[in-house]
Amino acid sequence: MLNEATAREIQVSMQYMLQHALYSGGGPVIERSQIDSKAGKFVASHSPFFFPGDTLKKIAIAEMRHAEAIAERVSFLGGEPLTQTKPFKIGNSVNEILKLDVMEEETAIQLYNQIINVAKLTGDEVTERLFRRILLDEQEHHRIFTSLII
Ligand SMILES: [Fe+2]
Ligand SMILES: [Fe+2]
Predict the structure, then answer these.
(1) Ligand 1 mean position to 32 CA, how many Å?
(2) What are phi and psi of 138, to 5 degrees?
(3) Ligand nearest to the CA of 131
(4) Residue 46, domain extent
(5) What are phi and psi of 62, to 5 degrees?
(6) String of b and e for 125-141 (b: at least 16 CB within 10 Å)?
(7) Domain annotation covers residue 57
């Protein structure tokens, strides 16, 4: 379960960063109108403090930190090292990106609630606390992505 969590975190970290990078260039494949919307600026912005206080790039970095924290926990518990991540999805428009990413956050929230329950049952307080903290981040990401979908 913890390895699945690590694999998911690395997947979304790469997914969000590539989605950001693809749109931030404003290259010929991207329509200008997509970037000029509030959601477009969220996806493409290099500014770490663009309204609503977060950008997709910043969230991608947060997901990498989650991956790091979970992988360290797996290692401490003597678990198998992770050898595979999950395939990522990019999306063909800003709206599609946000819809894909909302689904990722929903899956994470479900999985992390399960992990919290197992950790509680087995008396693993450190894992429980770690996932309670990460869960708050995922709920916030879910709220931000949902609020930007048109
Ligand atoms: Fe995460
Ligand atoms: Fe997240």
Answers:
(1) 30
(2) -65, -35
(3) 1
(4) 2-79+92-148
(5) -60, -40
(6) eebbebbeebbebbeeb
(7) yes
Q: Pick from 93, 133, 135: which is nearest to 114 by CA?
A: 135
pTM of the full structure: 0.89
What's the gap in Å between 57 CA and the centre of ligand 2?
Answer: 12
- Rounded to whole angstroms, the Cα distance separating 57 from 71 reads 21
Q: What is the CATH number of the domain that holds 112?
A: 1.20.1260.10
Which amino acid is located at 29 in the chain?
V
Q: How far is CA 78 from CA 22, 129, 139, 149, in A?
A: 38, 19, 29, 41
Instruction: Identify whether the C-beta of residue 68 lies closer than 8 Å to the C-beta of residue 59.
Output: no
Q: Which ligand is nearest to the Cα of residue 6, counting in written order?
A: 1
Model confidence over 30-82: pLDDT tens digits?
666 677 788 888 888 776 554 545 789 999 999 999 999 999 999 999 988 77
